[in-house]
Amino acid sequence: MMPGKPAVADADWIGVVLALLLTLFIALPLIVVGTWAFSEIWRYPAVIPQQFGLRYWSLTLSRTDVWEALFLSLRLATTVTILSAVICLPAAYAFARMTFPGRNILFLSFLASHAFPKFGLLVAIAGIFLQIGLISTFWGVVLIQLVGTLMLMIWIPVAAFQNVDRRMEEAARDAGAAPLRVFWSITLPQAAPTIVAAVLLTFVATFYETEGAWLIGAPEIRTMPVLMVTFINNQIVVQYGAVLSVMLWVPSFIALMFARRVVGTGTFAKGLGA
Amino acid sequence: MARLTIKGVSKSFGASHAVRDVSLDVEDGELVCLLGPSGSGKSTLLRMIGGFEAPTAGNILIDAKDVTSMPPEKRPTGMVFQSHALWTHMDVFNNVAFGLKLRSLPKAEIRERAEQALALVGLADYGKRMTTQLSGGQQQRVALARSLVLEPKILLLDEPFASLDQHLRERLREEVRDIQQRLGITTLFVTHGQDEALALADRIVVMRDGRTEQIGPPDRIYREPETEFVAGFIGSMNFVRTTVKDGLSQHAAFAVPVPVADGDVVLAVRPEALSLAVTRDKATAVVHRSIDFGTHKVVDIDLADGARVKVMTSSDSDWIKGMPVEAAATAFRVFRDNRLVYEFAATSRRQNDRVFGHA
Q1: Same domain, residue pair B114 and B171
Q2: Which of B90-99, B156-165, B291-300, B327-336 shows the highest mean pLDDT?
Q3: What is the DSSP string of A122-190?
Q4: Nearest to A168 among B87, B99, B147 (CB)
Q5: Distance from CA of B93 to the nearest CA of A (A)
Q6: Which residues contact A216 (CB under 8 A, 6 or more apart)?
Q7: pTM of the predicted model as reported, rounded to 2 decimal places
Q8: Domains along chain A?
């Protein structure tokens, strides 16, 4: 060890151990599920499956309900994310930059949808949807998932807009830009990385949303996560669930890669208040 | 070019008054410093001229045209902010070119003028850099170029160098002065640093609690302060509290004639207007310490009433702690309730002493 730097080295070791433990904790279940997806026979005492193979992949992928569910999920998540952005981003700007009566109470009300047990709320909403014929429809699921995204899509962009330096906006006014131009050329680009992060998080969260989709959408609307739950519930064979689960990683993996490229980890963390 | 007229401008935020009834005329090509402690309203006044705050009373005119209700984007003013406020998502060139693009000029002209502006501030080859890759001084230069490129009639600088170190600040303010004089642009400069104001300004406006205390060229502000506040704010100043009785100060060390009505007054004496003599019998003070500045020495002396006074002496004089001395003032000004009531200058250009007001 280098003389004169023991303190730094000690701290580094603790960090490395913590990082390893954390990685293990997160990665181990993923590895197990991933292994299940590619194994044909894996019986108890063995650490490694007795027989690897892609049989269950071809079995799963040949099912039309899997493909239908995948495209439905993508369509749902895209619709919800776009609607959420259209509704929430202007609202977030208003919360960040304007004062109006009831501002704080309204702002907190977005938190309220997450402050109570969600399932109870969903059941109540399902009751209402049943009355007005939204149960088991695409737009019924869109509505219920939209509610779930509001908090994320309001709170993070509010922080993003608030973090934009007012002096930058004033400098643009000074240079001759009218308020709308200032918003497009200065405020929005400045807040963009954080807003992109919020949009991606919303997309991924909606894609994986299960409770609402199941309660409101069943039996007609079957998203990927809902399908996975039925597979696991109805079949003894673990592999079906494992294959679907691995397939479900794909969108979040793509989203995360994209987020890293667009945002960079630093801004990502800053947008989330770190 | 441009003349700026401020007529009775006030600004209040709720119950607090940031600026109270300020009037000021800035001549074409003049550089005026707004000087004052924080909270004196100098920045608020500048922001009202730029259009970022609306005055609650009064008018602002540029070239005799009332701009009081104009938004900032319509005003012929250019502002440089303390935090430079560069747009971090654009490179240096686009920061400078942004305002030109808004005016939808031909591309070639935009490029030419932006590059000229960057060359003017000594950053000719920096156009492609991102603003975050620049040092603090370079960022402030870009901010200056961004304002100058639009050829504003009035340049407004809001403590532009406050976040820079001393050395850089001195260099940049000289550059700003050079550019300002070369372009002949009417400029308002807000600062809380008296050295900056003295070095830059054609005229200084000393502000306090939203009011102007005194407006004048630097040498007059320094030599002929009209209020006790100005006397203390600019340069080093000794204040001696004393009582006048029958036209004579009752202070043991400064028993000087003060031809004003009886009562409490404050004598203001510059360290360079005091002379020091060693004395055995008439000692009114003792030397506390002496600091050698090379060109001169500053001697702190303690008066009998506990007050400490600074005296500037020649560098070849010797002063030892505890030495009994007598101080004599060759010039002083007398204030009562922050107002000048009497000035005395034994060796000044104006030989006579003067009494002000109905003192």
Answers
A1: yes
A2: B90-99
A3: HHHHHHHHHHHT-TTSHHHHHHHHHHHHHHHHHHHHHHHHHHS-HHHHHHHHHTT--HHHHIIIIIHHH
A4: B87
A5: 14
A6: A122, A125, A126, A129, A134, A135, A136, A140, A141, A143, A144
A7: 0.78
A8: 64-271 (1.10.3720.10)
The answer to whether position B339 is within a domain reads yes
Give the pLDDT confidence score for residue B359 in this predicted structure.
42
CB nearest to B102's CB, from A168, A176, A190: A176
Contact A174 B79 (CB under 8 A): yes
**Residue A189 contacts B where some CB pair is shorter than 8 Å:** yes
Please count the residue pairs, one from chain A and one from chain B, whose beta carbons lie less than 8 angstroms apart: 63
Q: For the residues A98-103, what does the mean pLDDT come to?
A: 85
Residue A109 touches chain B, beta carbons under 8 Å: no
Nearest CA in chain A to B78: A174
Residues B175 and B64 grouped into a single domain:
yes
The domain in which residue B334 lies consists of 237-355
Residue from B3, B14, B33 nearest B202 by CA: B33
Whether B229 maps to a domain, the answer reads no
Chain B residues bordering chain A (beta-carbon distance below 8 Å): 50-52, 71-73, 77-79, 81, 83, 85-89, 98-99, 102-103, 143, 146-147, 150
Q: How far is A152 from chain B (nearest CA, A)?
A: 25
Q: Are A192 and B116 a contacting pair, CB within 8 Å?
A: no
Complex ipTM, two decimals?
Answer: 0.83
- Chain B residues whose beta carbon lies within 8 Å of the beta carbon of residue A263: none
Mean pLDDT over A255-265 rounds to 67
Point out the domain boundary residue: B223, B248, B275: B223
| Residue B269 and residue B200 in one domain | no
Pick from A167, A181, A192: CB nearest B85: A167
- Looking up residue B271, the CATH number of its domain turns out to be 2.40.50.140
Q: Determine the distance from the C-alpha atom of residue B292 to the mean position of all C-alpha atoms in its chain, rounded to a whole number.
A: 27
Least confident window among A10-19, A29-38, B268-277, B345-354: B345-354
Give the Cα-Cα-Cα angle B59, B63, B66 (nearest 5 degrees). 30
Interchain pair B83, A172: CB under 8 A: no
Residues B215 and B287 in one domain: no
**For chain A, how big is the Rg over CA atoms in Å?**
23
pLDDT at residue B347, rounded to an integer: 55
Tens digit of pLDDT for each residue in A56-98? 888 888 888 888 888 999 999 999 999 999 999 999 998 988 8
Determine the pLDDT at residue B356: 62
Would you call B52 and A189 a contact, using CB atoms and an 8 Å cutoff? no
Say yes or no to pLDDT of B349 above 60: no
Residue B346 pLDDT exceeds 70: no
| Boundary of a domain, candidates B223, B258, B283 | B223
Residues of A within 8 A of B48 (CB-CB) are: none
Looking at residue B269, its pLDDT comes to 93
